[in-house]
Amino acid sequence: MNSLDKSTIRDVNLAPAGRLKMDWAKEHMPVLNRLRERLSVEKPLAGKKVAISLHLEAKTACLAELIRDAGAEVIITGSNPLSTQDDIAAALAVAGVTVHAKYDPTPEEYKEHLIKTLEEKPDYIIDDGGDLVGILHSERPDLLENVKGGCEETTTGILRLRALEKAKELRFPMIAVNDACSKFLFDNRYGTGQSVWDGINRTTNLVVAGKTVVVVGYGWCGRGVAMRAKGLGARVIVTEVDPIKATEAYMDGYLVMPMSEAAKQGDYFVTTTGNKNVVNADHLREMKHGAILANAGHFNVEIDVEALEQMSVSKQTVRKDIEEYTLADGRKLYLLAEGRLVNLAAGDGHPAEIMDMTFALQALSLLYVAENHEQIGPRVLDVPYQIDEQVSRYFLEANGVQIDSLTPAQEKYLASWELE
After folding, report:
1. Residue 320: pLDDT above 70?
2. What start-end ranges are recorded for coiled-coil regions in this protein (predicted)?
3. Tell me: the pLDDT tens digits for 47-73?
4. Within the chain, what is the greatest distance between any pair of CA atoms?
5. What is the pTM for the complete model shown?
6. Do domains 3-183+350-398 and 192-345 have the same CATH topology?
7. Domain 3-183+350-398 class?
8. How big is the CA angle at 352 (ends 158 and 335), to the nearest 5 degrees?
9. How far is residue 166 from each of residues 64, 144, 170, 238, 258, measured CA to CA in Å?
């Protein structure tokens, strides 16, 4: 049975539109293209199956095709119900990748797509948020036998992996791609910063300048969101639980205060924590009329949507991806993209050039696991520095940027304890 016959997609007739999007992204992903030149000849993954759970849009499709070109049989599903693009899913299925994903599936369908992906019995996995790993270690341990290792894309997923490792339950090695410098410094900061505001602005069609933006959490994603909000002319408030990150936000020029105080002031609220209920019922009660709520964390748990539903006397869709909740006192609060990832559920995600770096890390890390899984053992591993450095070098070369190198004398000086 070919990949198209095995796939679970919305409409194969959407494939030409998806291919156009993929070709556009590919033109702006020079690092992946450089890797493709080598891997398509060497075929290091020949005879292997790779399962992928990522946000299924054009840049992800370029990664899937790179891994296919490296010789692997690729099975892919979406890591978020509202970020899958049906035309991309169709284009991949036509191109020889097995796809189990549709835009806005029911919770049951979403789960079924994940399980179908694992039932192909992959050798390696690329995960986003830990859904594949979670199912393998809880509901379907019968599918663990073939899995030799994989990579994780997100902070949320790595937290899950480290919890599994700490409990001595992790069954195979996983590389923490999110923790690579070439990932979080650029993807999390510049990618999230730009794509979140792309999603908010195209969805609301409202001005940001002069408004108050509350950024909940000041990790690398929060830094990016705050930086772009400031650039758009907003007054920015940061809320944090970590005193070190709070100090950094303060020194970066932002107002820092508890969420209970920020809730009274914000026009926009953007969550970036990876934790649940960081905007809760108490905060919602304090918000002013017209406040806009958006999530830029992984799962749709950061804003307590259930509490918002219970507090409301009516709800209606006022624009695509905007739900208006009217409270008993007449105030109206607006939730974007059902509280899911606003940059993907209501936008196109990170820019192609940014994901070029991240997906190059994924591809090279996957090859590293394939070559070394027996020696690594069942643990969470950082991206090897040589891979991290290589990706940034490729990126600089692709953009025509040259840098200096240490002289032998400088290398000797740095490696010596003697002050000569």
Report:
1. yes
2. none
3. 999 999 999 999 999 999 999 999 999
4. 75
5. 0.91
6. yes
7. alpha beta
8. 65
9. 31, 19, 8, 31, 31
Pairing of strands 322-327, 332-336: antiparallel
Give percent above pLDDT 90 in the chain: 97
Handedness of CA 349, 350, 356, 361 (dihedral sign): negative
Asked if 31 and 360 count as a contact pair (C-beta separation under 8 A), the reply is yes
Binding residues for NAD(+): 154-156, 188, 217-224, 240, 275, 296-298, 343, 350
Range 114-148 burial, b when 16+ CB lie within 10 A, else e? bebbbebebbbbbbbbbbbbbbbbeeeeebeeebb
Across 264-281, average pLDDT: 97
Domain range summary for the chain, segments of one domain joined by +:
3-183+350-398, 192-345
What does the pLDDT read at residue 418?
78
Task: Name the pairing type of β-strands 380-382 and 235-239.
Answer: unpaired
The tens digit of pLDDT for each residue in 113-129 reads 999 999 999 999 999 99
Binding residues: 128, 153-156, 183, 187-188, 217-224, 240, 275, 296-298, 343, 350
Cite the annotated binding site for substrate by residue number.
128, 153, 183, 187
What homologous superfamily does CATH list for 192-345?
A: NAD(P)-binding Rossmann-like Domain (3.40.50.720)
